[in-house]
Amino acid sequence: MPRIQLDYSIYLVTGRELLPPGKDYYESLEESLQGGVTLVQVREKNADTGEFIEVARRTKQICDKYNVPVLINDRIDVHLAVGTAGIHIGQTDCPLPLARQLIGPDAIIGLSVRNLNECKRAIEQKADYIGIGTVWRTESKDTKGRKCLGPDGTGEILDLLHDTGVQAVAIGGIHLPNLPQLLHGSISPKYSNSLDGIAIISDIVSSKNPRESASNLREIVDSFKRARKSLNQYQVKGGVFDSPFVIEHRNKNEFTNDYLIKRVEDLMNVLKDETPLINQLTNKVVMNDSANVTLAVGASPIMSTNPRDVYDLSPAIGACLINFGTIDDKEGMQVAGRQANVNKKPLIFDPVAVGATSFRRETAQELLAHWQPTVIKGNAAEIGAMAESSEVASRGVDAAGSGFKDPGSIVKQLAKKRAAIIVLTGPEDYISDGNLVIKLSNGSHYLEKITGSGCQAGTLIACFSAASKIDYLNKNNEELFENKSQLVQGDMLLGAIAGILVYTVASEIAAERSDVKGPGTFRSALIDELYNLTPETISQRAKIEIRY
Ligand SMILES: Cc1ncc(COP(=O)(O)OP(=O)(O)O)c(N)n1
Ligand SMILES: Cc1ncsc1CCOP(=O)(O)O
């Protein structure tokens, strides 16, 4: 008899010790099944054997009513006694080949996997599924001293499963607000594999309303899976689509230079009409100039960094920029980014000088474990560090040397790995969503002679990403997300292109002015030219190359 196919979408791992005061375990279990739990693992760390068997037996009885299979954590004897669908074992439990001998060919065996080597072994040993974790820190299990994988570490493991038939769930610290980030951020860089489901303890078990908690999680996982399926079909038909992060179909024939210029023009008007608030957690060096360029294009700057304040502001902003040039307020950055994800706002990350020190590298990692950026912008050294490439070194906040041999493929690969739009700035700018690469060749040599030009470019990407979201919502006349798993609606690739194009074209005009004598006069002329820039000028000057 072939092994049964399980639906791993919402995999509840039980934890009686985490129930809210007064909540009965069986009542909570039944409510969570009504909410949409698709698989249950009975995990009893403190019960003796008799009690474990009794809990498992009653759990199975309830799950049977909903046709939901049950697995047993660690204990083969309990599985055999109750006749469940299988077991879940960890790396220090009964070895998988022996467990297979003991429970026979038809039972399901899941194995915990914490790194690439453990995953390779799980494949060799023919695990039915793996539990990848921990993704984030959790109170539900002692994982002290262990590195959290984050969405991208999870994605690297998913690549190994390609064509193996081994299914995968992620576990550890997964809750409703970070679920979209996990699903999108873990799409694997090489083969675009995605998770089959999520394993959850506290988000469901500790809830006073487990039905609602399970149903909210289920809605996000289901819509993510639906969107992936439709993207795959679209891709098979030869279509081109945005990054897995920003799911929106794009027609290759219509995506031309003229189309892009027309859309940049639309977004310039949206900014002037709607004046979105752009919260910028940026460095002290550039704060004033960043606020001024925001105003010049029609948006409204706010430079809030206090964690409570950014939390309260988040629902009202159009986009959030996190530029960690001086890393003054890490907690504010964590909260601002997380709330941008929760409130589905474009989140622009400018990891200034990330490759220059280990402190910066670690901080970037920590922040990226808290939230999923929409756009990551950097110079060659910064993008190189994010891509773990040693081709371009950093010299303070600048890049040393002549740049990448193949910048297009660097940004494309990093966009796939990070599930974000990547913008590489320099004499030529490269932007990718993981499918397309857009090369923009406007700009002025003066941009290198003033401080914070890269930071200002990040600010303008935030402004135009906000415009792109507003434009989408206006055109589609909808406030609600059709796809609940999507982090941001609107064309974020376009937002990034518009931000860079507007900035670099304005810089060209400023540099040509007869009253500009050097960096000082250029700096203020640039703000004037951003303010006066017209769509016609963009159309006359834009140097765009679209590469597939
Ligand atoms: C689905 C899933 N994944 C991972 C685990 C963790 O199992 P293990 O490593 O054996 O740790 P304990 O659960 O025994 O503490 C899991 N239980 N389920
Ligand atoms: C059992 C287990 N294994 C790795 S993390 C974890 C606990 C997950 O619990 P939660 O969903 O509450 O973070």
From TrEMBL:
Cofactor names: Mg(2+)
Pfam family, one: TMP-TENI
Pathway in which this enzyme or protein is active: Cofactor biosynthesis; thiamine diphosphate biosynthesis; 4-methyl-5-(2-phosphoethyl)-thiazole from 5-(2-hydroxyethyl)-4-methylthiazole: step 1/1; Cofactor biosynthesis; thiamine diphosphate biosynthesis; thiamine phosphate from 4-amino-2-methyl-5-diphosphomethylpyrimidine and 4-methyl-5-(2-phosphoethyl)-thiazole: step 1/1
Source taxon at top rank: Eukaryota
Record keywords: ATP-binding, Kinase, Magnesium, Metal-binding, Nucleotide-binding, Thiamine biosynthesis, Transferase
Domain Thiamine phosphate synthase/TenI positions: 10-204
GO biological process, one term: thiamine biosynthetic process
Record's GO cellular component terms: cytoplasm
GO molecular function: ATP binding; hydroxyethylthiazole kinase activity; magnesium ion binding; thiamine-phosphate diphosphorylase activity
Catalytic activity reported: 4-methyl-5-(2-phosphooxyethyl)-thiazole + 4-amino-2-methyl-5-(diphosphooxymethyl)pyrimidine + H(+) = thiamine phosphate + diphosphate; 2-(2-carboxy-4-methylthiazol-5-yl)ethyl phosphate + 4-amino-2-methyl-5-(diphosphooxymethyl)pyrimidine + 2 H(+) = thiamine phosphate + CO2 + diphosphate; 5-(2-hydroxyethyl)-4-methylthiazole + ATP = 4-methyl-5-(2-phosphooxyethyl)-thiazole + ADP + H(+); 2-[(2R,5Z)-2-carboxy-4-methylthiazol-5(2H)-ylidene]ethyl phosphate + 4-amino-2-methyl-5-(diphosphooxymethyl)pyrimidine + 2 H(+) = thiamine phosphate + CO2 + diphosphate
Gene3D superfamilies attached to this UniProt entry: 3.40.1190.20, Aldolase class I (3.20.20.70)
Protein family per UniProt: In the N-terminal section; belongs to the thiamine-phosphate synthase family.
Function text: Condenses 4-methyl-5-(beta-hydroxyethyl)thiazole monophosphate (THZ-P) and 2-methyl-4-amino-5-hydroxymethyl pyrimidine pyrophosphate (HMP-PP) to form thiamine monophosphate (TMP).
UniProt-recorded name of the protein: Hydroxyethylthiazole kinase
